[in-house]
Each structure stands twice: as C-alpha cells, then as structure tokens.
C-alpha cells in the first residue's frame, strides 16, 4: 500500500514534499494533484514506473507522456521550439494545456513517442504541484490519472489511495484540483493542432 501524504492546499508541508521527492528519486510511482485533476508521476528516465502507468491505464507504447515543470524557463531544455511556438507556449503557461513538441537530447529515450520522438510539456497552475516540482528541481514525467473506462481524471486523493494505493508508492493529497484534463496542442506539424479539448481555452490556438 502506498504512503499517504495529506498536505495544506495553500502551504503544503515541506517535510511531506521532501518525503515524496525521495520516493520519486528512489524510483517510485506517485499520484499528485494538479489544476486538471490528479496525475501519475515518475522521475525522469524511470522506465519501470512508466511501464507501471501503462499497465494501470492499459496504454500502448505510443502514449505521449508529459514532462511537467515548474516554470517556462525549463521548457526549452527539453523541447525544440521555433520563435512563433516559443511565443505561443509562453503566453499560455502556467495553465491547463499540454504541448506536444519535438524532444531535445536531454529527454531520455524511454520518455519519447517511439516513432515521432516527441514528448508533452506543461507548467500547471497549482500550488501543491508547483511546490513538489520546485522541491524536486527537475520535471516529473506524468500521465493523467484516468483509469480504464473513465473519461475524466480522478479528483480525490483518498479515493485514489483506496482504489489503487496498492499499485502506487505515494499519494500526495492537498484536497483541491481541477476536474477536466488539459487541452492538448500538437505543434509537430508546423502549426497548432488541437488534439484534445479540455480545461484550457482552445480558442487562442485556433
């Protein structure tokens, strides 16, 4: 059974954040809240944790994982952006968007779409998620916490602990999160293509 860490939504306890970060660094798989529901989270390059996510969600190897970061300044290290993409992405984050872009060599191969060599990136607008990311000081590799047969993310930490806690290493619960998944915008064709309409306003990319 996973360890359960309830924290304050406006001032999450640093001791709990440190413990969750240690679990990530030790190769663990966590669930954590974001502005678009809960997400699975793993450390950069942790193939075994990604395999666990695929198994829980019943995903193929073509699923786009997302690098979740604490600030826009980190994005350019991991994905390639033309000037117009740079401006478009910068204007929309932090926020409820995931952007699909060509990865740089700093992204471990196990994180990438196997054929396209692309990856998702996002910067959430959520106190606990950002505090966790700042404590870790590197991206968390994430996937929306939707179980097979569901079309919306799970939104209650205690429910996640109850239902799939035996398949996770930690659940970070601050009691507040969004209820819709991100809007996904794919830039890899040379233009903005909306592949999923979600919580982020898609009109700014249309």
TrEMBL record:
InterPro entries: DHBP_synth_RibB-like_a/b_dom (IPR017945), Sua5-like_dom (IPR006070), SUA5_domain (IPR052532). Signal peptide: none annotated. It holds the Pfam family Sua5_yciO_yrdC. Residues 14-200 form the YrdC-like domain. GO terms for molecular function: double-stranded RNA binding. Coiled coil: none annotated. SUPFAM superfamilies: YrdC/RibB. Transmembrane segments: none annotated. This is Threonylcarbamoyl-AMP synthase. It comes from Cutibacterium porci. The lineage of its organism: Bacteria, Bacillati, Actinomycetota, Actinomycetes, Propionibacteriales.
């Amino acid at each position: 059974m996973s360890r359960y860490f309830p924290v304050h939504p406006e001032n999450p306890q640093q001791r709990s954040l440190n413990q969750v970060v240690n679990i990530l660094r030790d190769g663990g798989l966590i669930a954590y809240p974001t502005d678009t529901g809960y997400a699975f989270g793993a450390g950069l390059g942790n193939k075994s944790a990604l395999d666990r996510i695929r198994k829980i969600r019943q995903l193929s190897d073509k699923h786009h994982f997302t690098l979740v970061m604490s600030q826009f300044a980190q994005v350019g290290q991991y994905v390639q952006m033309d000037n117009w993409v740079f401006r478009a992405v910068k204007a929309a984050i932090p926020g409820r968007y995931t952007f699909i872009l060509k990865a740089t060599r700093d992204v471990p191969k196990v994180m990438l779409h196997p054929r396209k060599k692309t990856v998702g990136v996002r910067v959430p607008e959520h106190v606990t998620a950002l505090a966790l990311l700042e404590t870790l000081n590197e991206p968390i590799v994430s996937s929306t916490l939707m179980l097979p047969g569901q079309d919306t993310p799970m939104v209650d930490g205690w429910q996640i602990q109850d239902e799939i806690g035996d398949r996770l290493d930690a659940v970070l619960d601050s009691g507040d999160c969004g209820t819709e998944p991100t809007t996904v915008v794919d830039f890899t064709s040379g233009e903005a293509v909306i592949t999923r309409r979600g919580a982020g306003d898609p009109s700014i990319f249309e």
